[in-house]
Write the structure tokens for this entry.
Amino acid sequence: MSRSNIAFVLTGSVAAYKACEAISRLVQRGHQVRTVASASALRFVGAATLEGLTGERVLSDLFEPGSALEHINLGRWADLVVVCPATANTLNRLSAGLADDLAGALFLAHDRKKPFLVAPAMNPNMWAHPATRASVARLTDWGVRFIAVGRGRTACGEVGDGRLAEPGAIVAEVEATLSRPARRLRVLVTSGGTSEPVDGVRVLSNTSTGRTGARIADHLSQAGHEVVLLRSASSIPAEGPARQETFVSFSDLDQALGRVLGAERFDAVVHGAAVSDFGIAQIEVAGGVYAPGTGKLPSTGAPALHLKLHPKLVDGLRARSANPGLAVVAFKLTRGAGSDEARAAVEDLFGHSGADLVVHNDLSERSGSEAFPSTLHFRDGRPSLACPTRTELASELERLLVEFAAPSSVPT
Ligand SMILES: Cc1cc2nc3c(=O)[nH]c(=O)nc-3n(C[C@H](O)[C@H](O)[C@H](O)COP(=O)(O)O)c2cc1C
């Protein structure tokens, strides 16, 4: 992509070393990067490192003689500002509109027509704290785009959400944001697993978290597309501005798809939901036969569940859509499949769904929140693309959907 001017703001987190790697990659990819470092950030990485990586002086003091208007000049110069890593302190200060340091002054003086990205990094409790949640919501409302945090072991030894995104994902988000969409698409994303009622208390479900769909929805909406996320009630929500609706069972999702696809003209559907292949027809237990979904079955005997096969919702997406040129992305999950088996499963899905793209991943390769490698397959026979992380998958899909979708109805 073309060379851009990037203002890169570092704040005081151990993850600042990962930001250095992202800066290095951005510079290697031809971008001009100028850094701002909070006083705390400079306790984690030295000014010499940042100057060595960028070839530019590091700005840190709002009142530095000779640089007193740098928060205005830097904002004018930059095509994009990214705060990475963003501490809880800085996030909460930005959302309060405080401007007594360079990061805050740069934020308030920022031309809001240009993108402002934030890549948070903090302890899971800090990330989950209502103060931080409220700040994220407020900043998102103001048009700030968030680079999703990772899940796993943070520097403080706790496990949970709050890790800084990986350098590759940060670079991908920055570049996706800079290359504004040629066309603004309206995209329906589905995510999470359906739950089939056994009785009025118990359900038959699957292990889907909805994290991939949420990440794709966030990426697409942050890149300026209009996104509706249909997600299961128990799945991970999108953090960005996507419009969200929830479903529980196969039948809820089936109805929601019919309603939404018929009423609004979508350019593409990314059908990531893990839809139950089977529903419950009836249950036999303790000498009785019961219809599913009501009461509570006796626990005096082992029940026999009689299952029925559900139709494949992915097969009917285009026929149900108000847009016959709908681009369809289907997902195929395998577990422990060899390459021949996986390829056959993907071909089978192309065969019955008519999808333009199939994302394949294997559950045995899921390790942690971000590392769920997938492979993108093309119906038109192009070589498949490996996507090591969810963010890279989201970024590739955004690029490809603009190519695959028929002309959009949403004004840019
Ligand atoms: C070793 C160490 C690691 C820290 N890591 C983080 C972190 O990852 N995220 C965070 O929000 N704060 C972290 N802090 C606390 C911040 O550095 C502190 O709140 C500081 O005031 C942030 O200032 P700044 O936002 O202006 O950079 C850490 C502090 C120490 C001493």
Summary: Residues 11-15, 38, 40-41, 87-90, 121-122, 126 surround flavin mononucleotide (CB under 6 Å). The radius of gyration is 24 Å. The first strand starts at residue 5 and ends at 10.
